[in-house]
Structures are given as structure tokens and as C-alpha cells.
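In the current project phase, we have settled on a layout for protein records. A sample record is reproduced below.
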Amino acid sequence: MAATIYFLCALVASICAALLLRAYQRQHYRLLLWSGLCFAGLTLNNILLVADKIFLPETDLTVWRTLVALMSLGVLLFGLIWDAN
């Protein structure tokens, strides 16, 4: 059951990233770009979670997952601060 939820989380994050980046391509609002890049990073984070828990249970990828999530949220935070000015 956990594997199904991990896969669904990765799928939903990738769909969100695709929709946000596609909307940015049409409307050119920077917030859509930053949000899409954040969700792309969160998709990578979820893929690493699947690899960590399902495919490589003997390998600890917690540090890598945390770094990817931190960088993804950092991109969104940078975009929010930069576009506020």
C-alpha cells in the first residue's frame, strides 16, 4: 500500500509541475514558472522517496531527498521574494 501512495504522490507532483509550466508558457507569469520549478523538484524528491523506500531499502537517501526538497522550496521562495520587488 505504501508503494502505491509513493507512486501516486510522484505522479501528482509531476502533473502539477507540467500544468504549471504549461500555463507559464502561455501566460508568462513568473509565479507560474517558480511554482512549476518547485513542483518539478518535489517530483524528483518523490522519485527519490520511491527509490529510497522501495527499490533501494538498504541505502539511505534521506540527506539527498532533504536537499532536493530544500532546493525546490528555495527556488519558490527566491521567486516569491524576487518578484515582490
Remarks:
- The two ends are 45 Å apart (CA to CA).
- The chain has one domain: 2-84.
- Residues 2-84 form one domain.
- Residues 38 and 75 are 6 Å apart (CA to CA).
